[in-house]
Specification:
Number of domains of chain A: 3
Oligomer: homodimer
Structural class of chain A: alpha/beta
Largest interface: A-B, 49 and 48 residues
CATH superfamily of the largest domain in chain A: Response regulator
CATH topology of the largest domain in chain A: Rossmann fold
Helix content of chain A: 40-55%
Strand content of chain A: 5-15%
Distance between the termini of chain A: 81 Å
Number of helices of chain A: 13
Chain lengths: ~350, ~350
Amino acid sequence: MSDTGGTGEGPPTIAKIASVVGVSPATVSRAFGHPELLSPATVERVVSAARELGYTPNSAARALSTGRHGNIALIVPDIANPFFPPLIRAAQQAADAAGFCVFLGDCGERPAREATLADKFAAQVDGLVLASSRSPADGIHALARRRPLVLVNRDVDGVPRVLINTAGAMRDAVAHLAGLGHKKIAYVSGPASSWSSQQRRKAVRQAAEQHGTQPLVLPAGEPTYAVGEKAVVKILEGGCTAAVAFDDLVAQGIMAGLASRGVAVPGQFSVVGCDDTLGAITYPPLTTIAAPAADAGRVAVELLLRVLASSSAGERARDDRYSLDSRLVVRATTGPAPSSRSSRSSRARRAGAQ
Amino acid sequence: MSDTGGTGEGPPTIAKIASVVGVSPATVSRAFGHPELLSPATVERVVSAARELGYTPNSAARALSTGRHGNIALIVPDIANPFFPPLIRAAQQAADAAGFCVFLGDCGERPAREATLADKFAAQVDGLVLASSRSPADGIHALARRRPLVLVNRDVDGVPRVLINTAGAMRDAVAHLAGLGHKKIAYVSGPASSWSSQQRRKAVRQAAEQHGTQPLVLPAGEPTYAVGEKAVVKILEGGCTAAVAFDDLVAQGIMAGLASRGVAVPGQFSVVGCDDTLGAITYPPLTTIAAPAADAGRVAVELLLRVLASSSAGERARDDRYSLDSRLVVRATTGPAPSSRSSRSSRARRAGAQ
DNA sequence: TTGTACGCGTTATCAC
DNA sequence: GTGATAACGCGTACAA
C-alpha cells in the first residue's frame, strides 16, 4: 500500500502530520504559511502535533514549489584580509535577522573563480552580494541579469551598489601630512582593477597636487604585508618622508620595512593606512582612515533584501547607489617631517623601538 | 495544451532540452549523471544542446529527488576573531574543491544562537562543521543525530573532531620563560566553556608547577584586545614578570596595557600569545604559538566529506579524532627576566595606583 | 474554514 | 541504449 501519511521511515512530512491530526495536507501547510486563513483551534492542533513529531519543513521541496530559497550568497576576494571579516559578519547577521542563510565564497582575488562560484551559488540563492569585485563590467551585468545582485566597493551603472567613499578622507590624510611639513609623499596602491584602489590613488594624486607636489605612486598588486615591506626600498630611494598605503596591511608592512632599516616612525617617517582594520591593535597605533566595513556589509544585504522583496512585488529596480563616508583617524604613526636637526630623530627612534 | 517542453518562460529545464533534442527527459538526466549508460553520440547531442540553451540544473529539484544537497554549513563563534578567517577560508576551499557550497554562520559566542543556526542550516545541508563550539555535549549529540557533524577544537566522544593541540607548545612556552629566569607567570585565559582555553590553562598550570611555581590565572571571558588590556593591572599587582595569553588578541591587549604604563617589552616584561594570528604583523613581533588554523578547517571539511561518502555507502562512522600539533615561535616579546636590581617594587606601586 | 488535485524539475525503477 | 512513469514534499488554485 502507498499511504502517504504512513509511519514509514524518514523525517516527518506535512502528509504525516495531516494524517495524525486528521486534516488535509493543505491545512497543515496553511497552518505555517497562512495561519490567518484557518480557525485558531486548527492551527493550534497542527502546530502542536508538528512540534510533537519534530517536524521540519523540507526546504528543497519548498524551494521547488515556490521558486524562492531563502538564501543569499556573499563572495569576497579574500576572507583572510582583515577588511572582510567585519563585513561578512555584519552581512550574515543582517541576513539572519531576515531569516536568510548565507553562502560564503572566497575567490582568491581571481575574477574567473568569482564567476565560477557565482554560477554555483546562483542555482540556490535568491540574490548575491559581490564585495570588491574585480570582474569586468559585462560579466557583472550578465550575472545581474540572472539574479538580483548588489555590489560593494565596485561602481557599475545599473547595478545596486554600496560604496565606501575614502576619497575625502584620503585628501584629509594628504593635507594632514602636508601640514606636518612633508614635501614628498609616497602612495602604495592596491590591486589595479580594484575600484577602491583607483579611487584612493586618484584622491591622493589630486590632493598632493593641490599642495604643490607629485606623489610617488607605487603599484603593488595584492594588498599584503609583504608588498608593503618590499615597497620601502623604493619609497626611501624616492626621498619620501611619508607614505599613504592602500590599506592597513600594506601600511603595517611598510612599518616593518622601516623598522628593519632603523627608520623611526613617526620621528623620521610618517605612515597612514586605510580601513582601520589593525589600527587599534598595533603599536605604535596606526594613523589610518576608518572605513565602515561592517556598515557596508549590513547595508548591502538590506539593500539586496529590499530588491528581492520589490522584485517579487513586481516593482522595477531603481539604480541604487549608496555611499558610506570614512574619516581620517590620527593616531601615532604620523608626525612632523624630520628637520635637519638630529635631536628629534634620535628621540623618535627610541619611541619607535618600544 | 500542456506541453512540458514548450517554449514557455523561465530557465530551460531537462524537459525542454529533451524536446529540443528529441529524446526523453530521462536520457537528458542520464547524460549528466550517468553518461556511461548512454551512447557517446547521444551524450554529445544532449550536452551541446544544453550548453546552447544555457541549461542549469535546478538544485532544489535535484535535492528533493536525491535527498542530497551538495552543501555543508560552517558555524563559528566570531568571524571577526582573527583565528577564524584562515580556518573559514581553507574550509571553503576544501568544500569547493569537492563541489560543495558552504553556508557560514556566526553565533556571536552564544550557544543558543549556534543551535538556532544549526537548525536553520540542517534543512539544506548534508553535514555541518562546528568550530570552537561552546554548546553542551548533549546539544551537540542531538545535532549529530540529525546530520553528520564534525567539530573543531571541541572534544566530544562519538563525534568526529579535529583538535589543535596546544598543550605541548604551551608547556614549551612556560619552559622558555622559566629558562629566561621568570619566576612568576600570569596566564590570561579565554572563554571558560572553550575546550581550547581549558586545555591551555591546564597545560600552563602543570608546566609552571613543574618549574616550581604557581601561575596567576586570570579568567577573562571573551578573548579580546580590551580584556587583555584590562588584565594588566592585576598581572602587575600579582608581581608577574611574564604573561601567557589565551590568544594573540589578548596578548596584544596586554602589550598595549603595558605600553601605556611605561613597562617595556621585552626589557621589563615578557609576553607570549597563542594562535599566531597577529605575530607577523605587529611590532615588536609577538612570541606566540603557531596554530594550524587553516589546516584544521581543511581537515575538518575533508573529514566531513569522507563521513558523508561513507554514510551514503552504508558504512558506519568510526570515532574519528584528529590532533594537529602546534609549536612555539619565539620572536621579540620575550626576554630575560628583569634583574632584582631594577625597581620592581616601584613598578608594582605604580600599577597599584593605576 | 477546509479538502482535492495538480505542478514544480529531477532522479530512479522498471520495461522495452 | 532508451523511454515511460512514479515518486520526492510542498504550495496553491479551485471547489466545496
